[in-house]
Amino acid sequence: MILLESGMFNFKWRQLQIKPITGSDLSLYLELYCNPRVMRFVGEPLTENKAVESFKHALLYNERPEGDRLFLTVKHIDDAAPAGIVSISHFDREQKIVEIGSMLKPSQHGRFIGKESVIALMARITQVLNIDHFLLDIQPGNLPALRAARIMGFKPVLYSETLYELK
Predict the structure, then answer these.
(1) Residue 1 is assigned to a structural domain of this protein
(2) Closest Cα to residue 137, out of 109, 159, 105?
(3) CA distance 22 to 6
């Protein structure tokens, strides 16, 4: 069985530092998951209580190597605070497919951190898990994410309005 050991995902890529979320990342998590602007292409913003519960689950996912999700912070190496979260949203071990997601603080939009963090995570997954089939779930109105996906080489999946794949 291929394991998702969070320690394998503490790394630098070009100008980014990516590492597993820890208890000290609660404020970042709340800032993202409670923000209507950030959540507009994901779902309803969470209440603070629901976001805290969701954060606890995210921490537990990171402790379970046999799990199918992993939550990581991403920051530019020149910045003090993380810019957002990049994640393995789903890991299908049988088909060897990884779905990746990312969320950035609005102040970080336009800095290419989202696109670079996805590229970095794909490279790391390929390196440590030997998997090179990836999915992104992008809502039709999320034009910056759609543009970035096309630039990275992702193609629409025929059976879905929101899935894009790279293999």
Answers:
(1) no
(2) 159
(3) 11
